[in-house]
Amino acid sequence: MGMQEQLKLNNQLCFRLYTASRLITQAYHPLLSGIGLTYPQYLVMMVLWEQDAQPVNDIAKKLYLETNTVTPLLKRMEAEGFISRSKGKADARQVIVNLTPKGRELESQASCIPFQLGEAVACRSITPETAPGLYGTLDDLIHTLSSAGR
Amino acid sequence: MGMQEQLKLNNQLCFRLYTASRLITQAYHPLLSGIGLTYPQYLVMMVLWEQDAQPVNDIAKKLYLETNTVTPLLKRMEAEGFISRSKGKADARQVIVNLTPKGRELESQASCIPFQLGEAVACRSITPETAPGLYGTLDDLIHTLSSAGR
DNA sequence: TTTATTTATATCGTTCACGATGCAAAGATA
DNA sequence: TATCTTTGCATCGTGAACGATATAAATAAA
């Protein structure tokens, strides 16, 4: 009649990732709301700051999201004036996403966010020595899961 | 005019956690839909399997969620017949959540899920030797973030 | 060149998350 | 006791996520 050990919350990797993800996103909130972005919108902006003028699909792939998530996100960002969307010339099916001047200007305003966030996240388990190992593990996990799903 | 290095997606811990969390949840989906649960609902069930008859607030705290997320979740689970909700006797403000027989029966059906999931998540970076370290790091992060937010 | 298939994006419906706010019960203070 | 504050839960509105489906353009096959 004992509780199944493997069904305890404490033994779940996924629950930890889910919680850690939500809590970090919450920590971003006050910083991002200052520049008018949500966290997923901030991710899109980082993709575009790194390389402007990308089709929807390229953005979606880099974020491991589907277009049915990204399309409405981009529409809201267009309504806010951060990006513009235009038909692709080479391929008329594509929608090319461009930064507006307002969106481009945001990069310098956002540049301090990673540092501010770093202070909030500072804990003894994540140091310059241990971070690469953690990143590698998560990258490995993401790679396994994203390739398994096809 | 160079790209701000710290604003690159590859340098972001949060993006990794966000992606890993989503992809693992997706891996759960086919397993959970078989027993009629979503992933957050599965988390609630795990809390209740471990200890039945808890007030909403206790469940929310264990999942690091607010009641405005948990209440609608519980209502859907009640409509599906997995749980029942009743007024607390000692404190009339509380709503006590109980497993129904159907919800209790689900535990044995769910007991194989962690193993099935384990196979999907199997990658060289997460082994019986490395998992505790990863869990510890995430727990530390969660602790830091959840106590900072107050 | 038709016809069939794939690809790129969009639409729709449902379920989270979560900030803001409301409300009633409980507890504290006057 | 009457008033004030806190606590527990619910409601509302908005923005993701995502499965399922639709549509048009591009490509492949017949």
Can you describe what's shown?
The structure is a homodimer of 150-residue chains. Chain A is mainly α. Chain A has 7 helices and 3 strands. Chain A has helices at 13-33, 39-50, 56-62, 67-79, 101-110, 113-121, 131-148; strands spanning 54-55, 83-87, 95-99. Chain A has a 3-stranded antiparallel β-sheet with strand order 1-3-2. In chain A, a hairpin with a 7-residue loop joins strand 2 and strand 3. In chain A, helix 1 packs across helix 6 (113-121) and helix 3 (56-62) crosses helix 4 (67-79). The mean pLDDT of chain A is 93.
Short description:
The structure is a homodimer of 150-residue chains. Chain A is mainly alpha-helical. Chain A has helices at 13-33, 39-50, 56-62, 67-79, 101-110, 113-121, 131-148; strands at residues 54-55, 83-87, 95-99.
Draw up the topology in text.
Two copies of one chain form a homodimer.
Chain A: H1 13-33, H2 39-50, E1 54-55, H3 56-62, H4 67-79, E2 83-87, E3 95-99, H5 101-110, H6 113-121, H7 131-148
Antiparallel strand pairs in A: 1-3, 2-3
Helix pairs in contact in A: 1-6, 3-4
The structure holds a DNA duplex (30 and 30 nucleotides).
